[in-house]
Amino acid sequence: MASFARKTSNGGVALSIASEDDSEKLSADLALFLSNPDLKAALADGSLDLTSYSSTINAELSTLERECIALHRQAAPDTAILREELDAADDILAGLQEMLLGFQADLSGLSGDIRQLQDQSRSLAVQVDNRREAEEGLRLFLERIVIPPNMAECICRGEVDEIFLECVKDLEEKFAYVQMTEHDLDDPACNDPGFTASAGIPPAYTVAGREMVEHLLKLRLQAVDRTRAYFLGVIKQLRKPKTHVRMLQSHALLKYEYLVDFLLVAAPRIHAEVRDVYVESMSKTLYTLFRTYHKQLLLLDLRLATRVDLICVEEAALRDAFSNKVNLSKKKGDPFTIGDRSKVLDGAISSESGGDLSATSSPINAHMSLMSGDKFSYEMIFRSIMSHLLDAATNEYIFTRQLFKEYAIGENDCWNSIFGKTLSLILETLENYLFNCHDAIAILLMIKLTHYYKRLAKARRIDSVMEPFLDRVTSLLWPRLKTVMDAHLRSIRLAGPKKVGAGDIHSHLVSRRYAEFTCSILLILNRGKKSPAEVDGTRSGVVKTSAASESDKPSYRGSAGDMLVGDLDMMVEEMILLLKRLADVQTTNKKRIIFMVNNLDSIINIFKERRVNGKELNRFTELLVQQRELFVEEELLQTFSKMI
Question: Which residue spans within 227-374 are E strands per DSSP?
Fold first, then answer.
């Protein structure tokens, strides 16, 4: 009973599902039926008979079915033919398929051959690369150790020129290469392509390397011999007269400075020999040139001052032998007036104020001056010698450091050996001249020039070698200047009416000499100096000197300059005392006052003409005012004595 119930139940589910499908289909048909507007309208008004309409539809379907069967019967022959063609096409395609399968089998065999050929090709490519790499390494190795015939020919028999220089460079590279060992190979800084291409085998351990070392050494010795002969020949030309030394240094020595470095490495003794020969030759050449030049310049010396050319000199020494008049025309120049002599400082002052340090006037051409009969004061001669000396020192300093590689601090043995005799000669000649020099203006100008050349040497960076020499020059000049200044001061202190002559009430020669001499000294001391307080005075045409006041007192380069200023201060007071002694000779007080006024006025006028202002001028101006007041009082006493 239970199984029957389950069957009944399952059958009921199936019927319900079938009825649902039929109802959905019926609904779809009804929807399609109602989609026709005519049928929908007929149903709506009730005029449609469904039974008759269904019979009509069935009849139409039967008619269409019979027509379709008839058409199918008519197309049956064509369909049979098409079926035969399709069968033939199937046979052809089957044959093609079999043929393509054969091709596929053949191609699978060819792809294996191709893969084998590709593997062989890659293997051969690796072998070719290895052989090329080995060939390149061997080529580099041979190039770096083998000596070409043209290189050996050039080193043994060719001229020493640029080609010879390049051959020596190549020789040194080959020699350094064949001596490389494992230590060089392990050095991180070594990235030699020859090592990399030869699997890192050091050239010194190869048979070819050991064999080539001997040949390279022989050729190296030959290059040393040729280089030595060349340099000794060039250095020999330096000793010949009228040789252009700088041209020879530039084009025949510095051009081949690598060969000097080569000698230093390959043959240190030969390098030392070449260096010593050059030092000796240049030392003799420079010594001869400066000795000859100085002798020629001494013939041009215009000696302006002698032992008797002091501010106060005996009147008899100035009188003409045939008259009682003072004759100054015998002198070729005035040792007390600076005149155009300050032009010797033009180049030095322009460089001091920011101009070109080498913008000095041209040195004296001794040959032309001797032919034309020109004469020069000694400071011009001194400047010419020092200009040539500094130029030669600069050239040799740069040349020797570049050629012999003396770059270490304090390493100037080569330069000192070259210029030792020349500097001693210049110091000796200067000392001999100063022994009989009484021209204070020339000595002071030479001191100013020496200070300028110190600055110039520092600007050229040769102060390490030139400053000791220039200090010695200064140590010769300052004591001599002090001696000459003391002689002038002593002449004023010891002068009196009997020695210099009483004269009349007009300005005395001693006053003019003193004023010119003092103005010259002060103008030289202050040449090129401008303090902020002096700018206005300079614009108005007056140069402040010595110390117009304590605040704007200029510096005179230390104790030596201060000593000179102190001598000028003493000279002022001694000059005033001398004028008073000369005035005492006058018969009346009025004449004494007039004498003082005329002399003081003469001194002041010379100071103003030279545009010099300072405490010296102020001192004489104050004294002149006092003397004028005394003159006024004297005139009043003589004219209005009863009233006074």
Answer: none
